[in-house]
Specification:
CATH architecture of the largest domain: 2-Layer Sandwich
Shape: elongated
CATH superfamily of the largest domain: ATP-grasp fold, B domain
Low-confidence stretches: 1-7, 495-510, 614-624
Strand content: 25-35%
Number of helices: 18
Bound molecules: adenosine-5'-diphosphate
CATH class of the largest domain: Alpha Beta
Number of domains: 5
Distance between the termini: 110 Å
């Protein structure tokens, strides 16, 4: 039994040098294994979820990551103060930082991850490719030599054949990377990449690769222990990317054959062993999708850490990869051998980002007024759905860190079932207060090309027209939204529920409400104005015994409607005998922004909702008193008591069910007195003022 230079020993306290969902996720397993958990935080995260959930937490510094989460000495000091014997780095931040690992070794603290030497071996793309070539791992045809002479590089590009991809050797995050279509553009691209790489990494070395026009991103999860064992836990397809960042991932990769899976898995284990790897790692490959299922695969890079998308592997293998990491870090052998690992069913992960897909995925900030998943309402089985989240209702989303809020992970017996569950689960996610990509994820996951697994790394680009197209909203949706808005408002103002009242809505009397509706995007900043009504729905209450209580009229059509509240946010809407189940919400604060959101597993509909006509009194003759048409609040008195007014002049404004209602003079005359002042609450039927009409 040979221990590598890896600092393996038992520990009872784990510090997690990260934040957000991954910190919460790592601590969950650590607790289950009986470890004490220590969080670290920046000032922006003093009350963040990972801090709340940890047994102890230590402040690192100000909000900026380089002054907190990236500060090696501060993290080590936090471990010392709390007696943490090991540090889990999560992903990002210090997870692939060789000097950090060396500092931990020196301090006698276990790093839950590979040795510094393995991180270094994969840190430089050119050097890594040379080692992979040596280990017999297939590479994209290309050049990764030390000679960086312009003419030589140009010749190499010619030899490889255009289009080629220039990549910074020291690169990462897509920086210093450009596609060159032909020899004409080579020099300009080379100069540009060198400048970018110099600025980002302080290094100008370039490598050249054949640019694959239709590759899939397929990566293999590997695991090695400090006893010389190595296994692969199969593959993940992460082809759906925006700006080279993953959005939807799945395992296993669709269309894999057993031979290709084994070939890729074994190549990945060879790659890990070549560099003396220990712990969880991911070997990323490009799979040439243009050649069908048995396409060639090429090594791209190895990520020497736990990946964001590791849960899809956990779902199909039934293993807890963080538990594996912790055991390996304690010096234990791998829990299972290769032949004991199997794939069960299919899994998807969707990354929920605080960003606006309609604005080129611009990150969004704000406070989460609601962050919940309505499993009951969506009819989901909890065992099939996992939400790995770093936030809860009430949490702030700042601009300091990655905009990923949570990951939604689902499992199904096969891809079709898993995808259906993903769509239901996406519908069940209710995030308010911060703009997110939730609806975009739903459009991706319901896209026919995605359903058919027509995957490659340009999926989003290629399907842009259909993914971003404004959707035609049909009459039934408008009609449904009108009623949902009324219903939800009535629920909010319980005492004023039209369902409970003994007048108006209940009777056959001609009480009519008019609702103006207009499509909106999720982002109020570039939504149409709510006054631009696209549809006006006339809602009539006709609660007849046994019949539909509502009649909705719009666009020359009439719908007999019922709306039945179900569990959670779910409702069943029946329009002319067609019953549909959906999740329905009314969002927005105040009168300004009432938005009805209807979500089902196929789509989301968001409509500005506004009452434009509360009550039709049905009688216009002069009255000596004016009564409140509904329970509400007096907003303003518009004339003085005793004032002379003409018929139709506004006298008083009240507000009820989020709309203003103006009481007007029923005839020429004068107001004798008001019974209420601005701010007073009035009950339905209360006499508001005494009015004397002229004789
Ligand atoms: P970085 O380390 O900067 O993220 P990678 O080498 O991991 O760069 O590549 C990022 C993404 O760029 C890949 O996921 C893939 O979509 C695309 N890519 C990389 N190399 C190639 C190639 N040779 N041909 C086509 N696409 C590529």
């Amino acid at each position: 039994m040979s221990l590598t230079n890896h600092n393996a020993k038992r520990f009872d306290t784990l510090l997690v040098a990260n934040r957000g969902e991954i910190a919460c996720r790592v601590m969950r397993t650590a607790r289950a294994l009986g470890l004490r958990t220590v969080a670290v935080y920046s000032d922006a995260d003093a009350n963040a979820r990972h801090v709340r959930e940890a047994d102890e937490a230590v402040r690192l510094g100000p909000a900026a990551a380089r002054e907190s989460y990236l500060k090696v000495e501060a993290v080590i000091e936090a471990a010392r103060r709390t007696g943490a014997g090991a540090i889990h780095p999560g992903y990002g931040f210090l997870s692939e930082n060789g000097p950090f690992v060396e500092a931990l070794d020196a301090a006698g603290i276990t790093f839950v991850g590979p040795p510094a030497s393995a991180i270094a071996a994969m840190g430089d793309k050119s050097a890594a490719k040379a080692r992979m070539h040596h280990a017999g791992v297939p590479l994209v045809p290309g050049y990764h030599g030390a000679d960086q002479d312009d003419a030589l590089l140009r010749d190499e590009a010619e030899r490889i054949g255009y289009p080629v991809l220039l990549k910074a050797s020291a690169g990462g995050g897509g920086k210093g990377m450009r596609v060159v279509e032909s020899a004409d553009g080579f020099q300009v691209a080379l100069d540009g990449c060198r400048r970018e790489s110099q600025a980002a990494f302080g290094d100008q070395r370039m490598l050249i690769e054949k640019y694959l026009t239709q590759p899939r991103h397929v990566e293999v999860q590997v695991f090695c222990d400090s006893h010389g064992n190595g296994v692969y836990l199969f593959e993940r397809d992460c082809s759906v990317q925006r700006r080279h960042q993953k959005v939807l991932e799945e395992a296993p990769a669709p269309g894999m054959t057993a031979e290709l899976r084994r070939a890729m898995g074994e190549a990945a284990v060879r790659a890990a062993k070549e560099i003396g790897y220990v712990g969880a790692g991911t070997v990323e490959f490009l799979l040439d999708a243009s050649q069908g299922q048995d396409g060639s695969f090429y090594f791209m890079e190895m990520n020497t850490r736990l990946q964001v998308e590791h849960p899809v592997t956990e779902m199909i293998t039934g293993q807890d990869l963080v538990a594996w990491q912790l055991k390996v870090a304690m010096g234990e052998p791998l829990p299972l051998a290769q032949h004991e690992l199997t794939i069960t069913g299919h899994s998807f992960e969707a990354r929920l980002y605080a960003e606006d897909p309609e604005q080129d995925f611009l990150p969004a900030t704000g406070t989460l007024s609601r962050f919940a998943m309505d499993l009951d309402g969506a009819g989901l089985e909890p065992s099939r759905v996992r939400l790995d989240s770093g936030v809860e209702t009430g949490d702030a989303v700042s601009m300091h860190y990655d905009p990923m809020l949570a990951k939604l992970i689902v499992h199904g017996d096969d891809r079709t079932q898993a995808l259906a569950t993903l769509n239901r689960a996406l519908a069940a996610l209710d995030v308010q207060g911060v703009v997110t990509n939730r609806a975009f994820l739903q459009r991706l996951a319901t896209h026919p090309a995605f359903r058919n697994a027509q995957l490659d790394t340009r999926f989003i680009e290629r399907n842009e027209a259909t993914l971003f197209a404004a959707r035609q909203i049909d009459l039934e949706e408008y009609a449904g939204a009108a009623l949902i808005g009324l219903h939800q408002l009535a629920r909010e103002c319980e005492s004023d529920s039209p369902w409970d009242r003994h007048d108006g809505f209940r009777l056959n009397a001609p009480h009519t409400i008019r609702i103006a509706l207009c499509p909106t995007t999720q982002n109020p900043a570039h939504a149409q104005h709510e006054d631009d009504a696209e549809a006006v729905v006339v809602v009539e209450g006709r609660r007849e015994a046994g019949g539909s209580p509502w009649q909705l009229t719009l666009g020359g059509r009439t719908f007999a409607a019922t709306l039945e509240p179900l569990e959670g946010d779910a409702v069943a809407m029946t329009l002319n005998g067609h019953r549909r189940r959906m999740l329905a919400r009314l969002v927005g604060e105040g009168r300004e922004r009432n938005v009805v959101v209807m979500v089902d597993p196929q789509r989301e509909t968001r409509l500005f909702w506004r009452r434009i006509d509360a009550i039709d009194h049905g009688h216009h003759e002069a009255e000596s008193t004016l009564t409140a048409p509904m329970h509400g609040t007096v907003v303003a008195l518009l004339v003085e008591a005793g004032a002379r007014v003409e018929k139709g002049m506004p006298l008083m404004v009240m507000e009820a069910m989020k709309m203003e209602h103006t009481m007007t003079a029923p005839a020429d005359g004068h107001v004798e007195s008001f019974h209420f002042a601005a701010g007073d609450t009035v009950g339905q039927g209360d006499v508001l003022l005494e009015f004397a009409a002229d004789e």
